[in-house]
Design a protein that fits this description.
There is one protein chain. It contains 14 helices and 13 strands. Helix content is 38%, strand content 14%.
Length: 405
């Protein structure tokens, strides 16, 4: 493997791309939201400077440029997901897009229909489908097995019936970091005649989604977790778009993905997202934004994270008084580790660390089901989460901050 310094952006130069890292703090709350590279910030500023709040409008030149921006953002997002542009909706958040999708499901299903939710879900991939109980749909939970909190296919098989319409599953738990074999889940659901909706929000920063490989029917992720501005994205299998009666404006054709995008988009944020994707293009060594360049960036990210995750997990496991939740090996997890310190609330631990310049999350992180199953809801856990710009020194600062007299 080439040394870091021979690749696009040596690690120190890579970190220089992210202004908040220059403040000297160890940022270990990437699961809540990533930092933005300079070119994303600059793209937002440039758009607002040139266009202000100009809307997409084919009747004048500035409006045409703004309309083109939306087209380019959709196409670039599709590249990240290995998808086609007409199948990708962009909205304010993955949560909002899932609730819009649930409105379509509520017009299709009712009493006698069933939905299965994995026991690892963030509520963005649970609450929208629980809303279907209002129209008579039965909701079942596919619980993760303790103590590792991993999902087992045999448990899903026992829940699937001829009445199952949907299986909701995360690609990686946003609180525990546990990963799921999405192609296997999708294949099992499809064999039972059910659709699969995948929450890729937490997995995406560590390994970019691939809808072609996953075999799912719906996949969402959040660009703001992938070092972009606050946006959400949803992919819908093309042959399903025309079957989904989502509420829409009257003039939007049936099956047109823009029917999912209510109101005027935040064009300045779309510009920033394109800036982030350009950063990822360069990180992957590509001269143009292509799927190949993005795949190379995803591989580079995994290579950068691997030793940092190993240090984080091993260090926490060997710190006296610390309990780590989820797998105790790096196998089957991404760069997120949930833990608690004996005799302390998660909030107290996080506040004490922040006072020392180390920023982690504390709470339940909308991951209600897994933390209920672990018996730590609603107080939750401390969550340390890395990104490709995190260093082993950042991790060491966390470990030093957890030492007690």
């Amino acid at each position: 493997m080439p040394s870091t310094d021979t690749l696009p952006f040596a690690l120190h130069a890579l970190r220089d791309q992210f202004p908040p890292l220059l403040h000297g703090r160890a940022y270990l709350d990437n699961a809540a939201g990533g930092l933005l590279p300079r070119r994303s910030i600059e793209a937002i500023t440039a758009h607002l400077t040139q266009f202000g709040a100009t809307n997409a409008m084919p009747s004048h030149a500035p409006g045409q440029a703004v309309l083109d921006l939306k087209t380019r953002a959709r196409a670039a997002t599709a590249l990240l997901m290995n998808a086609e542009a007409p199948d990708v909706a962009l909205g304010p958040s993955a949560t909002a897009l899932n609730f819009r999708l649930a409105a379509a499901f509520a017009r299709l299903w009712g009493p006698g229909d069933e939905v299965i939710l994995s026991g690892l879900e963030h509520e963005a991939n649970a609450s929208p489908w629980r809303e279907l109980e209002r129209v008579g749909v039965t909701v079942r939970v596919w619980h993760a097995r303790q103590p590792t909190m991993q999902l087992h296919l045999d448990d899903l098989r026992s829940l699937l019936t001829p009445h199952t319409r949907l299986v909701a599953v995360t690609a990686a738990s946003n609180v525990l970091g546990v990963t799921v074999n999405i192609p296997e889940v999708s294949a099992l659901a499809r064999a039972a005649g059910a659709w699969t909706v995948v929450d890729a929000v937490h997995a995406a920063p560590h390994s970019f989604p691939d809808v072609g490989v996953w075999g799912a029917d719906f996949v969402s992720f959040s660009p703001y977790k992938v070092w972009g501005p606050h946006l959400g994205a949803l992919w819908i299998r093309p042959e399903l778009r025309g079957q989904l009666p989502w509420p829409k404006l009257s003039f939007v054709p049936e099956g047109d993905i823009t029917g999912m995008e209510y109101g005027t988009p935040p064009f300045e944020l779309l510009a920033g997202w394109l800036g982030t994707l350009d950063y990822l293009r360069e990180l992957g060594g590509g001269e143009m934004l292509t799927r190949t360049a993005l795949q190379a960036a995803s591989t580079r990210i995994a290579d950068l994270e691997r030793p940092v995750l190993t240090r984080l997990l091993d260090g926490l496991l060997h710190t006296p008084g610390v309990t780590v939740y989820g797998p105790h090996t790096t196998e089957g997890r991404v760069g997120t580790v949930a833990f608690r310190v004996a005799g302390e609330t998660p909030a107290h631990t996080a506040e004490a660390l922040s006072a020392r310049g180390v920023d982690v999350g504390a709470g339940h992180f909308y991951a209600v089901q897994p933390l209920q199953d672990l018996g730590v809801y609603p107080e939750g856990v401390v969550r340390a989460s890395i990104a490709h710009y995190t260093t082993e020194d950042d991790v060491q600062r966390l470990l030093d901050g957890l030492k007690r007299p």
